[in-house]
Amino acid sequence: VLLPEVLRNVDSLKNQVGTWKQVGKTIGVVPTMGALHDGHLSLVRASLTEADVTVVTIFVNPTQFSPTEDLDSYPQTLESDLDKLSDVGNVWVFAPAVTEIYPADFSTSILAPAVSEPLEGEHRPNHFGGVATVVLKLFNLTEANFAFFGQKDFQQQRVVQQMVRDLNVPIKIRVCPIVREPDGLALSSRNVYLSSDEREIALSLSRTLNWAVGQILSGQRDGYELMVEMRQRLIDAGVTRVDYAAVADPHSLATMETIQLPVVLLLAATVGTTRLIDNEVVA
Ligand code: PAF
């Protein structure tokens, strides 16, 4: 199978997009930071099904990392990413250098919507501003009709959907289910950082979510109690730090003290030095 064509700069992408638009092709974009796993590939499959052409963007976006985060060590695996993509189907890859996206005189940015403020927003203050800015640029560059995001980054998909709505961006956002290992661990590019002992501890996130879903299905309506219990389960399992264990409204992400469906349960915890997130919606 042929490796995907890799476009390295804005001009070559714009030219290619122009040829597709001229013949009326619909475009799907799958924004990624590379280090592709089956979760990403499920987004690529969804795009291949819905759009005439699929552009996978691979760009480790510096503006969404804080100075203390893992920008410099973030896994970069372009060759194997291209191999994986070629197994899935016929896609184009846009993998620009940082200066293509952020030239020296770049200075505009998006103020992320209010839904960015709780949860991740409290622990990663400028993260969603960086995400929203690069995502809007990628939407504009690819002129995509559809964009595919994973439910794994639940708050991110809410931020993107709200931005698209608030700014009337002409694109349809599709959200695809979390892909998990057979034992429940949500796929993440950061899972490669986990030792085998840490990986065992990391399972406590999906196990805690499953347990909490069970509690809700059997009638638990006290959101506050459930949040305390979820946090305690993670700590008992040996996580290093719990950033949040939340029961929230899936639209606003505001904490729900009295549970009313639909509800989203969201966890963020550090195992060793690796920060993991997971979530589950109960509808
Ligand atoms: O989810 C990600 O990988 C990134 O946040 C995204 C959407 C590609 C923006 O850099």
Q: What percentage of amino acids are in beta strands?
A: 15-25%
Tell me the overall shape: globular
Strand order of the largest sheet: 1-4-3-2-5-6
Number of strands: 9
Note poorly predicted spans.
none
Give an overview of the whole structure.
The longest helix has 22 residues. With 283 residues, this protein is an alpha/beta fold. A 6-stranded parallel β-sheet has the order 1-4-3-2-5-6, with helices on both faces. Strands 7-8-9 form a 3-stranded antiparallel β-sheet, covered by helices on one side. Helix 6 crosses helix 7 and helix 8 runs antiparallel to helix 9. The termini are far apart. It is 39% helix and 19% strand. The structure holds pantoate. The site of pantoate (PAF) has 10 residues, from strand 2 and helix 6.
Summary keywords:
9 helices, three-stranded antiparallel beta sheet, binds pantoate, 39% helix, six-stranded parallel beta sheet, alpha/beta, 283 residues
